[in-house]
Amino acid sequence: MPNSGFPARAASYLSGGRERARGTSRTMIAAPLQEHTSSPPAGVVILDFGAQYAQLIARRAREAHVYSEILPHDTPWSEIARRNPAAVILTGGPESTLGADALGVDRALWTSGLPVLGICYGLQLIARDLGGKLAPSAHSEYGPAALQTVATSPLFDGVPATSRVWMSHGDTVVTAPAGFAVLAKTRTCPVAAIGDIGRRIYGVQFHPEVVHTEAGTAIVNNFLHAVAGIPASWAMDSFVDSAVTDIREKVAAGGRVICALSGGVDSAVAASLVARAIGERLTCVFVDTGLLRKDEGELVVAAFRDILHLDVVKVDARARFLERLAGVIDPEEKRIRIGHEFIAIFEEEARKLDDVRWLVQGTLYPDVIESKTPASKAGHKIKSHHNVGGLPEKMHLALVEPLRALFKDEVREAGRVLGLPEAIVERQPFPGPGLAVRVLGEVTADRLETVRAADAIVTSEIEAAELSPRPWQYFAVLTPLQSVGVMGDGRTYANLVAVRAIVSEDGMTADWARLPHALLERISTRIVNEVPGVNRIAYDITSKPPATVEWE
Q1: Alpha-carbon torsion 408, 411, 415, 417, what sign?
Q2: Is 259 a catalytic residue?
Q3: Which of 425, 454, 484 marks a domain boundary?
Q4: pLDDT at 364 exceeding the cut of 50
Q5: What's 88's domain CATH number?
Q6: Is the pTM of this model over 0.85?
Q7: Residue 279 gets which letter from DSSP?
Q8: Which end of the chain is more exposed for a tag (fewer CB within 10 A), N or C?
Q9: Which position among 19, 73, 120, 259 bears the catalytic label?
Q10: pLDDT digits over 5-46, tens only?
Q11: Are 270 and 403 in contact (CB under 8 A)?
């Protein structure tokens, strides 16, 4: 799109990839998809057993244009019924249904007459509660499996007789409950799907919500539309309208609001939603941590003042963050210190303004689920995001998090609904802790300059290449390893830099990008020749899971 009127360097900045300042929950505005409204459209309630992919199920519902709410697994039936859902989905979870203290649901669900879909743990719970038999799996399945349908049903309508699915379970259903038919199997799992067509209760041992399950979208759509009869009536416009209304109601008591603006799509969309709701009561604060990429700090403020027309205050905290990170090696400690320092700065800036009561952050769902907040009763923590698990226990500002239930690509869609420029909407993700989690080991000024220079080369080369598909994220990592090399006929003992490029849909799962060898060669040659102190390059070919996108 044209950049007329933008400062030239700011326009150049926006054409590349950057991201984000995010947040968490002490006091929050949850996205309307997780918060009951007085008259929601017909939709589905998702009961969460601590699944890593709970919000991914909700995302599939949104893609099917169905309203959804995620509730804790032990929500009383009266609370579920008050929402008047058209169906219920039971998520997977990390625990076993065979334990004496296994998680369950209000048993009124089974006599409610509502359509139910159980996924993984949810399937096992259906079998346990309705009279089936379970046992520890003789052959646990983790990863891809070939699913074979063995009976016809509305759930598998249009699904190939054999397709790839994604498994992750240690227990298995041995015998289906009375009235249920076995619908599908795998080589090591004879009961991979069951269904009572008359009662409209189904269970699948695999995960239809993840992209690795080839027919997963069709299966979820079949349940929502064909089995439950829910109309396709929800759209992202509905989310934007509801979010603006909720923000306006939450901050109606008055007072100013500040927004942690990073320059990326998350904080830009969050700021735009709040600005639409409360107008001039919003002030954005951009903190230059010194952990940003090349030229980023000086470009963000100019770009977002000119494009979003926001009131932006810039804080130079480069020395301050380096001091806080001095001597810190543990990645969890890095994230916690960065999160605490961000909040301290925001509260200091708030005191310079009149009557600031709220802090807006661009927290997304993957941040929340990996950090495991108290709202997730049964989930396991993967790592603390600086804006979720890294926040201090006591804060003087209440948090506003309008994007908390969304994934990255959904935030982009919301940005388009809000009318944001594509240059902002399509920015490459960047972690809130910045380069601190791309410098493995101690963060120093010299090591930051090394990874910053290497990252600039990776970014420029990939963005100049004609690639299909385009990588979702790409960056350099400075490892704590050194190796022997030969440069100019002399021995070197210098740093190893790793290059990471991934393709993904939502950040919850990812695969390594198959970059052309010639491109990797250019990247390697340039880094070794242009970045002092580096003599070896490695390319990361690990998917997520088992790895995460970032190295720390």
Answers
A1: positive
A2: no
A3: 425
A4: yes
A5: 3.40.50.880
A6: no
A7: G
A8: N
A9: 120
A10: 333 444 444 444 333 333 322 222 333 333 333 345 679 999
A11: yes
